[in-house]
Amino acid sequence: SAAHAYTNLHGPKAPVTATVVGNLNCTEAGFDSETHHIVLDFGAMPFPVLEGQSLGIVPPGVDAGGKPHVARQYSIASARNGERPGYNNLALTVKRVVEDHQGQPVRGVASNYLCDLQVGDKVQVIGPFGSSFLMPNHPRSHIVMICTGTGSAPMRAMTEWRRRLRKSGKFDSGKLLLFFGARTPQELPYFGPLQNLPKDFIDINFAFSRVAGQPRRYVQDAMRERSADLMELLRDDNTHIYVCGLKSMEDGVVLALRDVAQQAGLGWDELGAKLKREGRLHLETY
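Below the sequence we write its predicted structure tokens.
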């Protein structure tokens, strides 16, 4: 559980070998933006993970300076009991990097390596990492998830674990409120599966910034549209907030939270500090 997360079990000098058992393009085919759902199996080697943790992938070969490639870190996109329940496997959400943030052509070493993997290929893995972005232990806690692109990976993991808890019938689960942004629906990872989740299980709000003929809309815009529901959750001490995505989204999200808090008559400086102090506000941007 989140009370005891395992970290750094396998370091760079002794990575563990995992086998690729699945590699699926989870964005609509035919678009420049390509995101893959990759499933790795660890066989008999223990690799215990929790929702919100990450791992490192060591690409083969050497860099331009002739040194071995360093590991690249990826958030885990599956629940703690496996991508397939009861199996020693997990999933990653990996976007194929073909350009930098300025739109200039570039080939991401690790992302292209991972996206090109075939079933049966072996991968060197280190980790797991992370003890601060973990979902709350109590299943009745409310979770607000705000993400863009592959920042959806930990949110998918949390959602899937809650879905399995709910299916077991042993727990009453708290509210799940998701704000998910991308340029277009075609580029949004897991767009189809998300739409199939029951509406009484998770409240999903999409924001697309590059749809032809429509104004640009970002996650912070969707948050302001749902300010009444966010206000109610901000007042509840059982609410946890998770933000994951590009660094450029962080300021807009925090400003939207500030606006919503002020509408609720709450001072954001005090509330934000309290949420961080109690481990209920989690920011992970890159």
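Residues 142-285 form a domain with the Rossmann fold fold (CATH 3.40.50.80).
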